[in-house]
Amino acid sequence: MIRWLRKMWSRLRTRMIVVFLISLAAMLVGGTIGEELTFKKTRYYYYPRAEEMTQIFLSHYARKMSQIRPAKRNAWLNSLEPTSRMKLRILDQNGNPLYQSAHAPKRREDIHTLFLRAKRQSDLSSTSGGVRNLTFIYPFYLDHRPVYFVGDWKGNGQPVRQGNPLMSFFSGILSFWLAYHLLTRGKLRQIAAMSRGVQEIARGRWETRVPEKGDDELGILGRHINEMARKLKESREKEKRLDAQRHEFITIISHDLRTPLTSIIGYLLWMRDHPDMSEAEVRRYAGIGLSKAQGMKRLIEDLFDYAKWTHHQAPIRKNRLFFNRLIEQLAEETNPLAEREQMSIRLDLCEDPLELEGDPDLLVRMLDNVFHNALQHGIQPGEIVVSTAREGDMAVLMVRNMADPLPKETLNRLFDVFVTGERSRSRGSGVGLAIVKMIAEMHGGYVTVIQDQGSLMIRFRLPLLRG
């Protein structure tokens, strides 16, 4: 019950109904006070009206009288005296009493005189007050003959207080307006503040926040507006970062494509201008040009893959595979390249084969990029240590090698696109590790980097196959 009441009170509609009812009560109180303040000094007194006494009381008594036996009619009239405050009697056409209450006069009356007296007596309010004797007469048929029901009333008039109804009306309206204004002032200020806040947000001032008072619809709306402003600010900051990345992209791509292309053009021009070159020189220069072209091809492929996976255009073909076996095969294929770079690969794999569901081509691409990053950025000669473990329902892969320390800012953004260390910028595109992070996330995992005592470790967590 309490929870329901709190829920109902948290609704703006309920609060407005309560505000209206309180304001209505204030209007009634204010109207009463206004009437009290405008009462006239002259007191008026009210006496029973002829229409009221004859049409309501005597006519009702007359109908009852016809239903009562004659022997009990006097007793019945006598019982009516205290409640009606009248002396009651029934007269025939000649004015002779037929039935009467205990205190009613028992004399014969002139019917014509009784009608004149009832007509002349004042039935309006009077300023004099005092005791009055009023007579009321009502003709009807009793036992199939015409009779007259006569009631003699005696008493003081009831004082009537008269005020100014117009003043009472305006004081009630004023009280309603004041109560409604005071009770809704807080919400109206909140709405005005929210309106100003929305205008500021519309002008691009994303740090603006609107009040979130209460748990009603306005409070919820305020929280939603603030959340919208926060997301707009984050979106704007992200857009600025993307603009900076696009500028950096143009700079890096221009550098990474122009440098090998310049070398290729240079070697080709040299070979064209020296047709007498020996076959060994031609092979050497052609080999250098081919190496540069292959580097450009790898960079272009990385860019194409990154753009494709960013927009979720590449389907994932998942198969059951053993992660440790995949690592062993790729390490064997990378060993010749590692030897040329004066590096070695040491495997420290767990006994669990680490069965998972994934795209073999994408996982090979992820591992290949990590191994190439270690070969390019590791201290030579050196060693790359690859180890795996099982943690609950996750497979853990760690690739560690000795490397020059990276600035904290570069380390935090290592998996962003086009982020490389200054030392080896000419050897890496800065796209490989961004692809590594994307492939890990496509498989429901994530990747982190740890730098400790001259070593750099990239750590993966991928979900294992259940059941």
UniProtKB/TrEMBL annotation:
Q: How does it sit in the membrane?
A: Multi-pass membrane protein
Domain HAMP: start-end pairs? 185-237
A cellular component annotation (GO) from this entry: plasma membrane
The record lists the catalysed reaction(s) as: ATP + protein L-histidine = ADP + protein N-phospho-L-histidine
> Under what name is this protein listed?
histidine kinase
Query: Sorted alphabetically, which InterPro entries does this protein's record hold?
Result: HAMP_dom, HATPase_C_sf, HATPase_dom, His_kinase_dom, HisK_dim/P_dom, HisK_dim/P_sf, HssS/ArlS-like, Sig_transdc_His_kin-like_C
Among its keywords, does the record have Transferase? yes
Taxonomic source organism = Polycladomyces abyssicola
SUPFAM superfamilies found in the cross-reference section: ATPase domain of HSP90 chaperone/DNA topoisomerase II/histidine kinase, HAMP domain-like, Homodimeric domain of signal transducing histidine kinase
Coiled coil (UniProt feature): none
Could you list this entry's UniProt keywords, alphabetically sorted. ATP-binding, Cell membrane, Kinase, Membrane, Nucleotide-binding, Phosphoprotein, Transferase, Transmembrane, Transmembrane helix, Two-component regulatory system
Keyword Phosphoprotein found: yes
Q: What is its EC number?
A: 2.7.13.3
Q: Provide the Histidine kinase domain boundaries.
A: 252-466
Where is it located? Answer: Cell membrane
> GO MF annotations for this entry?
ATP binding; phosphorelay sensor kinase activity
